[in-house]
What we know:
The complex is a heterodimer of chains A (702) and B (89). By secondary structure, chain A is mostly helical. In chain A, 75% of the residues lie in helices and 1% in strands. Chain A has helices at 2-38, 43-64, 70-75, 82-93, 96-109, 114-138, 143-150, 154-187, 191-241, 246-266, 268-289, 293-311, 316-328, 333-351, 368-393, 397-400, 409-427, 430-444, 455-463, 490-498, 503-541, 547-570, 576-590, 592-600, 606-627, 629-635, 653-670, 676-686, and strands at 468-470, 484-486. In chain A, helix 9 (191-241) crosses helix 20 and helix 12 packs antiparallel against helix 13 (316-328). In chain B, 73% of the residues lie in helices and 0% in strands. The longest helix of chain B has 31 residues, at 51-81. In chain B, helix 1 packs antiparallel against helix 3 (51-81). At the A-B interface, helix 6, helix 10, helix 15, helix 17 and helix 28 of A face helix 1 and helix 3 of B.
Amino acid sequence: MSAQVSSNRAFFNQLKKYYTWYTGGFIAFVVVLAALEALGLPRLYIGYAFLFATVALYAGIGIMSRTADVAEYYVAGRRVPALFNGMATGADWMSAASFIGMAGGLYLQGFDGLAFILGWTGGYCLVALLLAPYLRKFGQFTIPDFLGARYGGNIARFIGILIAILCSFVYVVAQIYGVGLITARFTGLEFTLGVFVGLGGILVCSFLGGMRAVTWTQVAQYIILIVAYLIPVVWLSMKHTNIPIPQLVYGTVLQKVTEREKQLTADPKEQEVRAIFKQRAVDAKARVDGLPKTWEDGKAAAEAKVTELKAANAPVADINAAEKALTAYPKTEADARKAWTAQIGSNNARAAPPLPHATPFPSGNPDPVKNEAERDTKRLNFIVLVVCLMVGTAALPHILMRYYTTPSVNEARKSVFWSLLFIFLLYFTAPALAVLVKFDVYSFVVGKSFSDLPAWVASWAKVDPRLLSVTDINKDGILQLAELTLGQDIIVLATPEIAGLPYVISGLVAAGGLAAALSTADGLLLTIANALSHDLYYKMINPNASTQKRVAISKGLLLVVALLAAWTAAQAPADILFLVGAAFSLAAAGFFVPLVAGVFWKRATKWGAITSMIGGVTLTFWYMAVNQVWLRGVFGVTDPVNLWWGIQPISAGIFGLPLAIVLMIVVSLLTPAPDKQTQDLVEHVRYPNLKGDTLNTQGAVG
Amino acid sequence: MQLTERHKEYWQRNLKITGVLLAIWFVVTFVMAYFARPLAEITIPVLQFPLSFYMAAQGSLIVYVIIIWYYARKMGALDEEYGVAEGDE
């Protein structure tokens, strides 16, 4: 044992040395690029340098850690020290949505966006207290492994495989999409090509070395992503408060933002612009109400205008504009209804005064009774979203799987602490970033004349109008807040420029976003490939397969799944953010109950678990399918949307979860208690070490 | 395999620690969120945050980190005390 401890310590010190050198090397790389930028290196090359240097680095680690050993391939040899497993989990956990999208979501939603911050950190309490140590004691390789062993056989295992694949695949598509987006924006490559370059980076790592390579790459990726996230925020904090600890001092900035919101709400010019949008919404509503006549009239008018201009020999530009308007005109009455209804919504949204950032569950409704009701519904949605995200966190297989890789149960417990600490670093910075950027925009962009807006506004407006657009609606030459629209993703991407940092930091932020997306995609792909190769093929189809064959099959499947995910991402499904939320709700409703009951309730039976998983996932999926816009389209649902208690489809797990609990309890009590062997297994996982316990579930045979 | 009374006591104490920590987790998450509107009226001195915003953006997160840190430490000690730590053959 002491030999084991000292070898673990030596390994830890060696890792510490490697990663210290690595961090130093990376900083030197950034400094050199900064110097080259000052000497006139074009921006495009900086983008390329970051893209290729980081992807080559991850590939290098992947090649160095290549393996064909089963325990190494599936669980990194179970010798990852708690601290490093914490970093790897941090990178595994923080996806493109956390890195790029979250601060933007907080900017747009204010207090209500904090549900994501709470949900995606507080879930680790459930992981630590209810799952990680017990799963580590159980050992083995995957989450379906546990379900199969605890709930007697292949039915539970098979349902586990299906749920693991469903939620992981949905999630991995979103990551690969993020990779494509970042690559395309910072190197000028085409989106689809960007997807496949990123895919190469993901594959070379997980393909060659499985969990071992993914673990050591994720540690490297964590370091890049946290450095990239913190530098611009610290700089922005210096700019506005002169104190480099943004998390501590943004309370005063938040107060200034709140004051500015009040000014902007009362400002007559702002009100003028909002009134214009209100009128546009009223007009759009009149057109929808007047269908089909309004559509026919509009079409006739557009055609008449083209004919008239042509007959009058008007300038070509005018004729072209009129023809363009005619082509853009809705083709059918149904199209018109859809487009104009959307216009009512978007114009009404822009007619609203600025959202009070610090106020919980705000409502702009002037009617006091409705106002109160709206605020209560928002509170309910906030709370149920937090529940779904937390329970989902504690049920996503790619995260739980990471705790199989530590050397012991106690290391697994410590490792959850490190995981959350490393995640916390980013998550408690994101709200600060949102507030600082908001202050900057409200103070130094809004109220300026269009001719002297900061340079970053024009340059981002050119990249993509969905990210940033400014239009002088009331033609006064001054930018009002209501004339500015910002997309969620721009907040993090543009922060270096807002803070006045050189372009090399923008490149660094892009590299950070790429690291976040790649690391999560790696973990997810591995989960899917393992569920198929280990659980489906080895445990259910061919238990006599040799170890080489198992690893080879896993690698082959990884390739297939990755290509399938890239293909899906290249189709750019409509609502990618919803998909990420859906993965959490599905995992929460499917896995959480059988996993926790498996450890804490000896009486939980096979059929209790099976019905609980099926019932939970089915109800959750059904609620999404009948209520979420995009899924309604996919399944051709035409019944009117009927939300229960006003709960949004992203939190559908809130209905699946209680159903899963009820089914687990009722069905378990109706079926005979589990046999002696299963009960022994429960005792086995409850104690880190039990005298006289002959069970060995480690399964780490080479 | 027969569990001794000591083993049962270990598990009971584990359940108690888990229960208490989950109760704290529940309060800082859901009770805080439920009463977020009245709590927003309170401003934290020096830092100048409204209380409910601070908790949701930072305070509760710090409590989560402490909960997990305490659990790992406490359970490590409990393993030793009851002779169920790894390596205690």
